[in-house]
Design a protein that fits this description.
alpha+beta, Immunoglobulin-like, 17 strands, 10 helices, 4-stranded mixed beta sheet, elongated, 44% helix
Length: 490
């Protein structure tokens, strides 16, 4: 594994580790952000939160979350250290993801266990629903501002079209762990504008989600300050969706201009890492804003009691039994498509409604299936590098005036290679090998040798069986030969 691959994987593992730590903090704080009458997705008397039983339940929950998060951190942060003893790119990139998955599943289990402990303390929730006897308006925070993301993408696409002749015939579309390109596209409309089309589909999806949340979400209060807090929280959510659409479109519009900025062998631009860091910072800002508002905007309402009907705990006016594991809402009797999360901040869907599944199918098509289909239609075979070939050797093939002090033979390929395999051989004209062959980087193979003056040498590439030079996709290089002759001593 080259040093560039290791460094890229180290940065990747560090980003995952920071993400795991951030999720850990969120999970610890989450019980305090939900509505006062809900505790681990169970309707309670708000006074229960300060009892010794509740404090003990939350303490045990935090310990479970800490245990799973520490395991996730070990998997993420330990990947580079493990790779030092066992250099394998798969280990470097799969272990951090395994840690993230471990934390996700373990945290869900921790929530379910805490919910089970709270259930004996549940109280009867107010099931009376408050409604306004008028059609709910299709309110959309941001208004005409929702056109801005589309304008960004169309402007970027127009600039590409105006400078069509400046786009190289072949340009990188993906970079491998070493930071070198390992997939390319060609100057064809579908290949050039794939990111712009994907960005437009993402914008339409977020626009539809914002509109649907405003129209089809369950409201807890119809009047009073509770209703005011809910309305402000809904508008805040829509503003966040608009911000996400703007960020996504800016990202796609910027990356969509890369064909004008990079050459077929250009390394990954360093500013892409800056975009990733900026995305994490923006996520922290959004979470902080939502936490300040509280779930459903309850902290925005100075006095929720103004909106309560009858006695008992209002909560979110949904039955506890409809919340599976405290995380998933399934209620065929509820016509609402969106409901407030009971554990977390924001909205969840009513998984019992067929319209929700249709919406998820549309989401999958617009954000995954259609972009992949565009890549395929653009020419899947053109997006994968072809057969690797020797781009340069030192000494060069046919050089008959090589310095007899030569100490190494270098073979450079035209694309990133699998550094775990190689094949050089020869017979009577093969130079004396003085050390272990190694890779200087993911394209350059080095063979330490000793040569004698006035002799002809021949080195064959990929002629013998067994391991062979092959690219990162497993495609073997064709056989080649290096013939050279050293100068005679005068």
């Amino acid at each position: 594994m080259s040093s560039a691959e290791w460094m890229a994987a180290f940065i990747y593992a560090a980003v995952i580790a920071v993400t795991v730590a951030g999720i850990w903090i969120l999970l610890v704080r989450m019980p305090r952000w939900t509505r006062p009458e809900l505790y681990f997705a169970v309707t309670i008397d708000p006074a229960f939160r300060s009892t010794p039983e509740a404090v003990a339940i939350e303490r045990r929950y935090r310990r479970r979350v800490a245990a799973h998060s520490l395991i996730a951190l070990v998997l993420a942060a330990g990947a580079p250290a493990l790779a030092a003893a066992w250099p394998n790119a798969l280990v470097l990139f799969s272990l951090p993801l395994a840690g993230l998955l471990w934390q996700s599943v373990g945290s869900m289990a921790a929530v379910a266990m805490a919910r089970h402990e709270v259930l004996p303390h549940a109280v009867a929730a107010v099931t009376t629903r408050e409604v306004r006897l008028e059609r709910r308006p299709m309110a959309l925070a941001g208004g005409w501002g929702w056109l801005a993301p589309a304008m960004l993408l169309l402007a970027s696409a127009a600039w590409l079209a105006l400078r069509w002749r400046d786009i190289p015939d072949r340009f990188p579309t993906h970079w491998g762990p070493s930071g070198r390109p390992d997939a390319w596209g060609t100057r064809e409309p579908l290949a050039v504008f794939t990111l712009h089309i994907t960005g437009l589909l993402t914008w339409l999806t977020l626009l539809g989600l914002a509109a649907a949340t405003g129209r089809f979400s369950r409201r807890i209060y119809a009047r009073g300050r509770g209703a005011g807090g809910e309305g402000r929280f809904l508008r805040l959510t829509q503003w966040i969706l608009l911000g996400t659409a703007l960020w996504s479109s800016l990202l796609m519009a910027t990356l969509g201009l890369l064909p004008l900025k990079v050459q077929p062998d250009s390394p990954m631009p360093g500013w892409i890492w800056g975009l990733i860091v900026l995305e994490l910072v923006l996520a922290v800002v959004v979470i902080a804003v939502l936490a300040r508002a509280g779930q459903g905007g309850w902290r925005m309402a100075a006095d929720e009691a103004a909106g309560q009907a009858g006695g008992g705990s209002v909560g979110d006016r949904t039955p506890d039994v409809a919340w599976k594991l405290g995380l998933f809402y399934y209620n065929p009797d509820d016509p609402a498509l969106f409901v407030e999360k009971r554990f977390g901040i924001g909205y969840d869907v009513n998984w019992a409604r067929p319209a929700v599944w249709i919406g998820l199918l549309v989401l999958l098509l617009s954000t995954t299936v259609v972009p992949l289909a565009l890549v395929f239609l653009a020419g899947q075979d053109r997006l994968v590098p072809g057969e690797p070939v020797v781009a340069e050797t030192s000494p060069a093939h046919g050089d008959w005036d090589v310095d007899p002090g030569l100490r190494e033979i270098r073979i450079r390929f035209d694309q990133p290679m699998d550094t775990s395999a190689w094949s050089v051989s020869g017979s009577t004209h093969y130079p004396e090998v003085t050390g272990e062959p190694y890779w200087a980087d993911d394209r350059t193979f080095v063979l330490p040798v000793r040569v004698e003056p006035g002799r002809t040498y021949e080195v064959h590439i990929n002629r013998a069986g067994g391991p062979r030079f092959r690219n990162a996709h497993g495609r073997a290089a064709p056989s080649a030969v290096i013939d050279f002759q050293t100068r005679a001593v005068r």
